[in-house]
Amino acid sequence: MSERAPTGDRRTGRWARVRAALRTPSAPGGAQGAAAGRVPAPLVRAEQLVKTHRGEGTAPVHAVRGVDLTVEPGEFVAVTGPSGAGKSTLLHLVGGLQRPDSGGLWLDGERVDAYGEARWALLRRRRIGIVFQFFNLVSNLTVADNVELPALLAGVPAGDARASRAELLAELGLEGRERSMPGELSGGEQQRVALARALVNHPALLLADEPAGSLDSKGTREVLRLLGRFHERGQTILMVTHDARTASAADRVISFFDGQVADDAPLGGSRREGRRGVSGVLELKE
Ligand SMILES: Nc1ncnc2c1ncn2[C@@H]1O[C@H](COP(=O)(O)OP(=O)(O)O)[C@@H](O)[C@H]1O
Ligand SMILES: [Mg+2]
Hints:
Number of helices: 8
Order of helices and strands: HEEEHEEHEHHHEHEHEE
CATH class of the domain at 72-98 and 115-282: Alpha Beta
CATH topology of the domain at 72-98 and 115-282: Rossmann fold
Radius of gyration: 19 Å
Largest sheet: 6 strands, mixed
Strand order of the largest sheet: 6-7-8-3-9-10
Strand content: 15-25%
Bound molecules: adenosine-5'-diphosphate, magnesium ion
C-alpha cells in the first residue's frame, strides 16, 4: 500500500516514533474520487464551526463559537488575536487535527467536517501542509529525512522525494544542511526545514500556527519573507498569530476574539461587508 514505508526500508524501524511525531496516523488505501467539472469553490469554507474543549473535572472551554470563514485560492490570511482566543483550535479544525462539535467545513468544495482520522490523514499528506511554533521536526532524523518523509508517506517514489527535498532546501537556503540533525540547527533554520517539510507535497493549503512565535527577530523576518515569497507564487496560506507585526505579512487579517471573528479586513483596505466591527478590541492597530 502506498501509504506505508517500503518494506525493508532502512527507516522502517523508526516508523512508530516518526508517525507519532508527525501526527500522521496510519491511513488505509481508499483514494477518494476526484469530482470532475465542479464549479470553482473557496479553498476553505467554514460555516458556524463550534468547538468546545471538555476535560475531566474541568469546566468546558468554548474555544470556537460559531465561526464562518472563507479562504480563496491564493490568499494569505492571518488570524490574529490575544492568547486563548481560540486561534490554534480554529487552525486545528481546518487541518483536521481536531473535530468540530458542529458546523460545516469544506476544503476545495469537498465537505470534510465528518471525515474520520484516516481520511484526514490522507488529506493532510496530499493537500495540507502545517507549520507549528515549535517546528515539531523528528529529532532523530536528519534534515533530509525530515523533509522527504511526508513525500514518502504520500507514496512519492524515493527518487522524486529526494529531488523535491533538494530543490526546497536549496530554495530555503539550507544547502549543505541535509545531513544535520535538527538539534544542530538554529531555531530559524529548523523552522525553514519545517517549512520545506510542509511544502514538499505541494499542498493546496499551508497552515501555520505562530510560525515565528519562538524565533528571534532575524528568524522571524526570514520566515515571514519566505512565506511571502511562496504566497507570491500562488501558495494559499492561513496563519494564526497573536503578533500584529507577524499578521501584517498577510494580505488579509481576521481578528479573532473569544472564539469568534471580530473583524475581517484586507490589509490597508476597507472592512469587508457583513462583519461585526469590533476593531479596537484588539491590539491590532499598534
Ligand atoms: N485540548 C484542550 N483541552 C482543554 N482546553 C483547551 C485545549 N486546547 C485549548 N484549550 C483552551 O481553549 C482556549 C483556546 O485555546 P487556543 O485555541 O489554544 O487559543 P490561542 O491559540 O488563541 O491561544 C484556551 O482557553 C485554552 O486553554
Ligand atoms: Mg495558539
